[in-house]
């Protein structure tokens, strides 16, 4: 379903129907699921039975099919560029920069987040019963900044928002390594990291669709593939120091390394592809008003 919504978003963007905020609202479904669906599903499963959770999901899926059929209008198809034409955008550097930044930058976050439960309980001193509230705080940060990412991208440009968020996340991950023993700072840094993770994700999706001319749907799918690869790479890399016998705050070291690489790639992308255009527009504006 998420891939279908991304394909729809890619189509509307390519046809000029929406940009920025509307496009990113369409792909904010995963964050809503994190904030609402996960705790509700967990509560229902523990209180009644896991069968009720599956039954609810099935019923809601049928309702969703009806809502899509009833309310989403018929759209003009994208231009047919042929099978090979869908892949032409891969000949350019820009989409590769975005894909590698997505895989490595987001992978850095999952280096740490995959082990956030033992980090919070064994290092920061929280109990297992505290984790549901902490995960809800993390989810609220994801939701708020996924939506904020659209407005920031419209105002400052998605490239600038992406590399800035990635840089902040890198610093926060590095701080976790040194400050995880402090419970208050540990929670604050956790929220900062999850906030930056989903602030940077939305502009990345927007940028790849923008730089996938003729293959917008493939571009929308590619960024999700890169995100999933980063998830796997991060979880595996974060487990290496734990397997070697180090404490769980050491997961933040490879995490900050990957996040720094993602920051560098996004900064280079912004300097090469976005900054010259916005600088030219600003210069032209002041010349007209002079």
Automatic annotation (TrEMBL):
InterPro entries: MFS, MFS_Efflux_Transporters, MFS_trans_sf. The keyword Transmembrane applies. Signal peptide: none annotated. It is a multi-pass membrane protein. Keywords: Cell membrane, Membrane, Transmembrane, Transmembrane helix. The keyword Repressor does not apply. GO terms for cellular component: plasma membrane. It is found in: Cell membrane. GO terms for molecular function: transmembrane transporter activity. The chain crosses the membrane at residues 48-69, 93-115, 131-149, 170-200, 250-270. SUPFAM superfamilies: MFS general substrate transporter. This is MFS transporter. It comes from Oxalobacter aliiformigenes.
């Amino acid at each position: 379903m998420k891939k279908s919504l991304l394909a729809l978003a890619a189509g509307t963007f390519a046809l000029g129907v929406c940009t920025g905020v509307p496009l990113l609202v369409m792909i904010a479904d995963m964050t809503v699921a994190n904030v609402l669906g996960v705790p509700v599903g967990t509560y229902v499963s523990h209180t009644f039975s896991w069968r009720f959770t599956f039954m609810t999901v099935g019923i809601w899926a049928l309702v969703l099919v009806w809502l899509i059929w009833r309310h989403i209008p018929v759209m003009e198809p994208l231009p047919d560029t042929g099978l090979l034409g869908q892949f032409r955008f891969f000949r350019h550097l820009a989409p590769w920069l975005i894909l590698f930044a997505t895989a490595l930058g987001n992978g850095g976050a999952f280096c740490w987040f995959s082990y956030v439960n033992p980090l919070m309980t064994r290092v920061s001193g929280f109990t297992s019963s505290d984790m549901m509230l902490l995960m809800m705080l993390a989810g609220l940060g994801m939701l708020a900044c996924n939506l904020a990412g659209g407005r920031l991208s419209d105002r400052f440009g998605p490239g600038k928002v992406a590399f800035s968020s990635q840089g902040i996340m890198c610093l926060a991950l590095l701080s976790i390594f040194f400050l995880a023993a402090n419970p208050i700072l540990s929670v604050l840094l956790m929220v900062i990291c999850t906030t930056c993770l989903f602030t940077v994700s939305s502009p990345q999706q927007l940028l790849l669709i923008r730089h996938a001319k003729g293959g917008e749907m493939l571009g929308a799918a590619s960024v999700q593939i890169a995100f999933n690869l980063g998830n796997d790479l991060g979880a595996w890399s974060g487990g290496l120091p734990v397997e070697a016998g180090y404490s769980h705050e050491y997961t933040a070291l490879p995490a900050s390394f990957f996040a720094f690489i993602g920051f560098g790639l996004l900064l280079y992308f912004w300097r090469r592809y976005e900054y010259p255009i916005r600088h030219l527009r600003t210069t032209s504006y002041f010349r007209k008003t002079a």
